[in-house]
Design brief:
The protein has 362 residues and is an alpha+beta fold. 20% of the residues lie in helices and 36% in strands. The chain is elongated.
Length: 362
C-alpha cells in the first residue's frame, strides 16, 4: 500500500515555515487567503464559460488533463453541492474549483483519488456527510458514483493509504470555518458504488451544471483613501472564523463568493479605520453614509488584536445582504493611552455595493 501525501498545495499548507511563530502563521495565512480570494472573480468568467461548454456536450477523449484544465464535475446530492474539478492544487485552481491531486489516480480508476478544496468554499459542509451518502464524479467519458464510508480529522501531512479498488477522498482544512492557517485536515472517504458511460450518445450533461458565480461587490472608496492601502498587506489582521447566517442557499455557502464578499467588507472596514485615524469625516461619510462619525476615536488607531476578527455574512437565498465584523482590539488614542475596545462594524449590500451601516465601539 503506497501512501499519498496530504501536504497539499492548499493555501494553509503553503505557510508551513519552520521558523515562523504562531502569530507569524496567522498573519501569513490571512494574507495568503486574500491573495486567493482576489483571484476568484478574475478567474470565474473564463471558468464559467468552460463549465458551460463542458456541460453542453464535451466529447469523450482519452488523455490526462493539463494543470488548470477543467476535467469534470463533482456533485454531492445530500449537500446540494456541484463544483467544477480541475487538474492540480495551485492557488489559481483552488480559487474557483475543486482540485485533483496529480499524484493520485482519477476517480473511477483502481486506487485512491484525492479531490481537495478550500474549507470556506466548495468543501465548507463536507463534515455533514455520513456513511451511505453519495458523491458523483462526472467526466466527459464516465459517471462514477461513490458511497461515503467514513470521516476523520488528521494532522496535516498524514498519509492516505491507497486502495486496491476505486476509492475517493475529499480533503480540506479543518475547522471548516477558519480564515486562518490550520494544522489539521478533514478527510471524507468513499468507495465506488457504480460506474457507467456519461452518455450513450452525444448530448448534454444538464443536471450537473454548477451554480453561476455572482458579480464582484463594489466598495465606494475615495481615491485618496484607497492610496493608503486597504488590504491585509498593509493592515495585518488576525482573522478568525467566517459564518454565513440567515437563510443562505447551499450553492452560495459552497462557492467562492463568500470570500469575495468578505474581502469587500474588509476593504470598507480598513477604509473606515484610516478615516478615523486621519479624522477625515468626508471619507468616512462616503464609506458609511448616514452613520455618525465616531469622533471619540478620532486620531486613534488599532495597535493589535486581542481576539481574532470574526466575520459573519448574512444571506437570503443566493444573495449576501450584509456582513458583521467583530473583535476586541487594543486601541491607541492620540494622547498616547491604550485600551482594549470591543469593536463591531455592520455593513449592508445594495445593488452590488457594500457600505457600512453601523459602528459600535466600547
Amino acid at each position: 500500500m503506497r501512501a499519498l501525501s496530504l501536504a497539499r498545495n492548499l493555501i494553509g499548507a503553503l505557510l508551513l515555515w519552520a521558523s515562523a511563530g504562531a502569530a507569524g502563521y496567522a498573519i501569513s495565512w490571512t494574507l495568503r487567503s486574500h491573495e486567493v480570494a482576489a483571484q476568484v472573480m478574475a478567474h470565474a468568467p473564463g471558468r464559467l464559460a468552460a463549465e458551460k461548454a463542458y456541460s453542453a456536450g464535451t466529447s469523450c477523449r482519452a488523455g490526462t488533463p493539463r494543470p488548470g484544465q477543467l476535467a469534470g464535475l463533482v456533485e454531492v446530492p445530500s449537500l446540494s453541492m456541484k463544483a467544477p474539478v480541475e487538474q492540480g492544487e495551485s492557488s489559481a485552481v483552488l480559487s474557483a474549483s475543486v482540485g485533483h491531486d496529480p499524484s493520485s489516480v482519477w476517480p473511477g480508476s483502481d486506487g485512491t483519488s484525492v479531490l481537495a478544496a478550500h474549507d470556506v468554499s466548495f468543501f465548507a459542509r463536507i463534515g455533514q456527510l455520513r456513511p451511505g451518502d453519495r458523491i458523483i464524479y462526472v467526466s466527459a467519458c464516465r459517471t462514477v458514483t461513490f458511497v461515503v464510508t467514513g470521516h476523520r480529522i488528521v494532522p496535516s501531512g498524514s498519509p492516505v493509504s491507497d486502495s486496491s479498488g476505486p476509492s475517493l477522498v475529499l480533503d480540506t482544512c479543518w475547522p471548516n470555518d477558519a480564515l486562518w492557517w490550520t494544522p489539521d485536515r478533514e478527510l471524507v472517504t468513499a468507495r465506488e458504488l457504480s460506474s457507467r458511460p456519461s452518455r450513450e450518445s452525444p448530448g448534454e450533461i444538464t443536471s450537473h451544471e454548477p451554480a453561476v458565480q455572482g458579480e464582484p461587490v463594489a466598495v465606494p472608496v475615495p481615491p485618496g483613501l484607497a492610496a493608503q492601502g486597504l488590504t491585509l498587506d498593509t493592515n495585518p489582521t488576525l482573522l478568525g472564523t467566517m459564518q454565513v447566517s440567515g437563510r443562505p442557499a447551499p450553492d452560495l455557502v459552497q462557492s467562492p463568493e463568500p470570500l469575495d464578499v468578505e474581502e469587500a467588507a474588509l476593504t470598507a472596514y480598513y477604509g473606515a479605520l484610516h478615516s478615523i485615524a486621519g479624522n477625515d469625516t468626508a471619507w468616512f461619510a462616503e464609506l458609511a453614509p448616514g452613520v455618525p462619525f465616531p469622533g471619540a476615536l478620532a486620531g486613534g488607531h488599532i495597535t493589535s488584536y486581542v481576539t481574532r476578527l470574526a466575520v459573519d455574512l448574512r444571506a437570503q437565498g443566493d444573495q449576501v445582504t450584509g456582513v458583521r465584523l467583530s473583535a476586541v482590539v487594543s486601541f491607541s488614542t492620540p494622547s498616547g493611552g491604550t485600551r482594549n475596545l470591543p469593536l463591531t462594524v455592520f455593513t449592508r449590500i445594495s445593488k452590488g455595493e457594500l457600505t457600512i451601516s453601523g459602528w459600535q465601539a466600547g
